[in-house]
Structure formats: C-alpha cells, structure tokens
Amino acid sequence: MFDHFLVSVVVVPPVLLLLVRLLADRLSPRVAAPVVAWSAAGAAAASLINLLVFALKAAAERPVVAHWFGWSAQFVVDDTAHYPWVSWAGVALLAAAAVSIGVTWRRQRRLLELAGAGTGRPGPLVVVADPAPHAFAVPGRPGHVVVTTGMRDALSPAQFVALLAHERAHLAAHHHRLIRIAELAAASHPALWWVSRHVDYLVERAADEHAATEVGSRRTVAQAIGAAALAAAAPLAPAGLHAASPGGVVPRRVASLLKPRARVAAVVALVPLALAAFSLAWTAEAAWDLGELITAALGRG
H/E element holding 186? Predict the structure, then answer.
C-alpha cells in the first residue's frame, strides 16, 4: 500500500504545482481559474483520503483492535513492513490537516461575516463615506460591491466604471467559491499553497478580462487597476475578498491586459484535471487494498 501514499500524498501535489506554473497563464483565465481550483480540490481530497486509509491501517495494527475484530495485527503490519512509519505518519498528517482545514474554514466564515457587516440591506452598490480608498465584492444573495468615497474620488469616471465591472464580474462568476475551495485545498497539503495563490491571481485576471469586454477598452481597465492599486494604502478586509490593493500581481495583470500572451488550446486544461482524477482513482484503489488486507487478515486471526 505504500505506493498509494507515495503517489497521492507525496508526488501528485507538487506535480500539480508544476503543471499550474507551466499551463495556467497560457489558458484563458476564465477557464484556468476553475480548472486550477478544482484540480487542487481533487488532489487535496485524494491526499486526505489516503491519509485516512493509512490512519485506519494504523488502528488495525493495534493488537487490542485486532483482537476485538478477530484479525491478525501482525499480518496488517507486515504489508508495509519496509516502511513501518507510514501508517502513523498518516495519523499525524491527517490530524494536522484536519486542524488546518478547521482553522481555514472558520477564518473564511469570519471574513464573509465581516465583509457584510454594517451594510444593512444593501443594493448592488454600497458607497461608504470613507476617505480611505477601498473597493471589494461581497458575495451573498444577492451580492454587492462596496466602494469608499476615497476610492471613487481617486479614479476617473471611466476608470470607476471599469472598477465596478471588475467587482461585478467576481460576483457573477462566484469567484469567492473558487477561492474558498483553493484555500481549503491548501490547508490540507502545504504543496498546494502556491496553487491556491495562483487561483487568487486567476480570478483577478478573469475579472479584468470581463471588465475589459464590458467597457470596451483594455487600456481603461489597466489604468483603473494601476490607479486603484496606487490609491489603496491597505485592503479594507483581509485577503480573500479581492479588495483593490497594490499586490505584487498588479504589474502582471496590467501587462496581461496591454500585451496579451498567446494562449494554448482549451483542451490543455484537461491535463491538471486528469492528474487529480488519476490521484483520486489511485486513492480508491488504496481503500480497496485496505479492505482486501483486512479480509485476508481475518483468516489469520
């Protein structure tokens, strides 16, 4: 069973990271954002299930458990005798992942609650009288865009229209869901952290492209991004709500609008998805193998 641990827990997440680095920026961001987020989710799920399988194997190795159910503990141990640490490593890693996911989930809930606080029953656009320049989209039913007077006054009328189109694009495409999925995947496996950060970038790029189409000018959107980034001293809410802030990706976003890169065929997006699907299938085989191992051990109890 060790090969299942090696592939789905150790190998696949870093390989997915490399694929994202190679392919994501060559795809349409509207396509790449969900592909990368769901690929990360698949790889994370496969890793977690593998860890659960080995945690169950660790429990099955305990003599008291084996005696209770009537199987041979030594037979279960012998399956990974060359790597005696792997079962209990699965227990430790699963526990760490569970804590990390729980912390991330609670943080996400607090962010969403904080973002919607104080707006009462908002319409599509909430303008807050505040000289600090901030703008962000708040998901909900319905969602709304929050802009401070400081941000509105920092932009030209055309740039302000572009900024609103960008934030509305986040709401229309439910980008907050992709961000949450990617963050939870990163919480489950450290190799997926960079993949999660790239999802952040891709949803911003997707919103940029939507805004450029809506206002009919890529240059206006690029100018709006630059002006908003220069005006914003700090985001109103923590990362994850897509406040207009001067992050290091701003020059890349502006460059992508003004000088779009050549893109590869959309079918390339299947590569990271296929890797995640393979890892899930390999994990299913690990669960099957554990069942067969326990069945064989029952005959030796």
Answer: helix 175-188
